[in-house]
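To illustrate the input format used throughout this study, we show a single complete record. The first block contains the structure-token representation of the backbone; no residue identities are included at this stage. The design step must infer an amino acid for every position from geometry alone.
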């Protein structure tokens, strides 16, 4: 108000209340009558020449008290016609209440000030409404495009320039977006809110909005003020986001699926080495993992086996995704008595088990694999649909992240191997390397150089010779075993092997040749689009 041109022309002086100049003005009103009772609603700028209270200090005190009791935002006095200075009684009454008093040293038409203030208030309200409608439109577009709570909260975080959190009715973390301040500061601020509420205090630096489903509170969305002060627009944005979250929860998502996606994002970042040890502990605890400090961490990764699912899709048979299965799988693995941290990421399911006092042994892994595939079986899935790889125990979060990265690579490689209930990923093998290199031009060229004549034949005869070579190499060069696997007589096998040597121009008695062919045959399984 003090910066309005019409006010500046009146030579305003702040007589008292410099510390309260951030008070919000809702409206402006001129009061010149002796009794101002019941004239205000609160938040008004009152303009006066002092004609109402006049020169009686007792009347001035009562008049000022009436304005204060009605919630006046500020008092502006035009000096000269009634008062040469603002009376001490008026100054003292406003000072006690923290109400700013402004003295105008030059005459001004009050109608010009009220018009300017009202225009500013209305323009601000209109701008707030317009911004609120814009953020509401963006949330609606996200929902119509099939996006969910993670995208809604990411949009909200960008709009309010502060971390945002979604928690359930019990105060447990469901999902969050930290933004530039980072996860550690965001989660610490969220914990501070809960500590203040536990003490019965009103938390500072936070705005909240209830997420209501079917006339009951499902939880709340909150924005945490860290680097930016939250304002009225932020409150509107949070309210609109809470509505969008409720719509999404009702139509698409389930809270367990949201938690699973949040856990999957954390585990993926851990596997990529992007989480510090102390931060990992805090984030895991915030995500509901009670295993911190309870023994070694055992990494597991499951990947959809079928080729169609390994080319960027996150769903398995009949459209069943790891996100949809996460609740059942988490419950099944938790029946071991071990703490479970489980979440989907892309085509994989990432898992950490806290072993507690148990040591790693094959019986434990067999039991875990039995529970895992039992949960899949209830959805009509089995080991032929998903490959489960199990790594070795890790004593730190950093080591667990490295283990997850290695096991994730092994699980991807296992999708092209023979079906087993689980794969031992404690030690990286050749298949892991070939899987990592599957789409490189160098590996493709190597396969073509080693197997070119058999691959380019395209006839049933060429396919038979290629199958024969695979069986022979898989048997370790043992011809009798290869003949049994192919259901051939030995002489027929010998004839095929000679034809292979002739087609490739090599000798299968040469160890280097056999090694190169074996690598090429196995690499074929991992090449994009190859049949498995």
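Output of the design step:
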């Amino acid at each position: 108000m003090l910066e309005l041109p019409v006010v500046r022309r009146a030579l305003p002086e702040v007589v008292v209340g410099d510390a309260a100049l951030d008070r919000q003005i809702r409206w402006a009103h001129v009061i010149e009558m002796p009794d101002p009772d019941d004239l205000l609603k609160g938040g008004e700028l009152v303009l006066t020449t002092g004609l109402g209270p006049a020169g009686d200090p007792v009347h001035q005190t009562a008049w000022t008290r009436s304005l204060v009791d009605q919630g006046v935002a500020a008092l502006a006095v035009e000096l000269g016609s009634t008062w040469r200075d603002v009376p001490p009684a008026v100054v003292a009454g406003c000072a006690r209440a923290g109400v700013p008093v402004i003295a105008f040293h030059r005459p001004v038409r009050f109608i010009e000030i009220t018009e300017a203030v009202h225009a500013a208030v209305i323009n601000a309200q209109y701008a707030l409404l317009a911004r609120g409608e814009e953020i509401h439109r963006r949330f609606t577009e996200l929902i119509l495009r099939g996006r969910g709570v993670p995208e809604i909260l990411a949009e909200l975080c960008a709009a309010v320039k502060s971390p945002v959190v979604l928690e359930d009715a019990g105060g447990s973390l469901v999902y969050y977006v930290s933004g530039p301040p980072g996860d550690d500061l965001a989660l610490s601020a969220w914990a501070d809110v809960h500590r203040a509420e536990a003490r019965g205090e009103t938390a500072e630096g936070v705005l909240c909005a209830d997420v209501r489903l079917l006339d009951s509170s499902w939880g709340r969305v909150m924005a945490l003020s860290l680097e930016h002060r939250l304002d009225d627009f932020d409150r509107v944005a949070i309210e609109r986001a809470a509505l969008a979250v409720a719509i999404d929860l009702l139509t698409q998502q389930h809270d367990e699926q949201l938690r699973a996606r949040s856990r999957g994002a954390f585990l993926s970042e851990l596997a990529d080495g992007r989480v510090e040890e102390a931060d990992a502990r805090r984030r895991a605890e915030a995500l509901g993992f009670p295993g911190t400090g309870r023994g070694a961490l055992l990494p597991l990764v499951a990947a959809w086996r079928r080729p169609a699912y390994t080319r960027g899709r996150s769903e398995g048979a009949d459209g069943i995704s790891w996100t949809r299965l996460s609740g059942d799988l988490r419950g099944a693995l938790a029946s071991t008595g071990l703490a479970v941290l489980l979440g989907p990421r892309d085509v994989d399911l990432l898992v950490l088990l806290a072993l507690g006092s148990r040591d790693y042994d094959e019986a434990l892994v067999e039991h875990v694999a039995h529970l895992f595939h039992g949960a899949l079986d209830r959805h009509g899935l089995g080991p032929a649909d998903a490959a489960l790889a199990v790594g070795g125990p890790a004593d730190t979060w950093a080591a667990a992240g490295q283990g997850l990265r290695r096991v994730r690579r092994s699980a991807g490689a296992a999708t092209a191997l023979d079906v087993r209930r689980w794969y031992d990923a404690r030690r990286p093998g050749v298949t892991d390397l070939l899987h990592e290199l599957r789409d490189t031009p160098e590996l493709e060229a190597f396969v073509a150089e080693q197997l070119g004549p058999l691959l380019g034949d395209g006839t049933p005869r060429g396919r038979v010779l290629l199958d024969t070579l695979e069986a022979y190499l898989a048997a370790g060069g043992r011809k009798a075993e290869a003949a049994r696997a192919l259901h051939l007589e030995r002489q027929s096998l010998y004839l095929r092997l000679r034809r292979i040597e002739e087609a490739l121009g090599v000798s299968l008695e040469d160890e280097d040749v056999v090694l190169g062919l074996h690598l090429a045959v196995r690499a074929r399984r991992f090449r994009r689009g190859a049949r498995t």
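Structural context for interpreting the output: Confidence is low (pLDDT under 50) at residues 307-313, 528-532. Residues 110-144 form the longest helix (35 residues).
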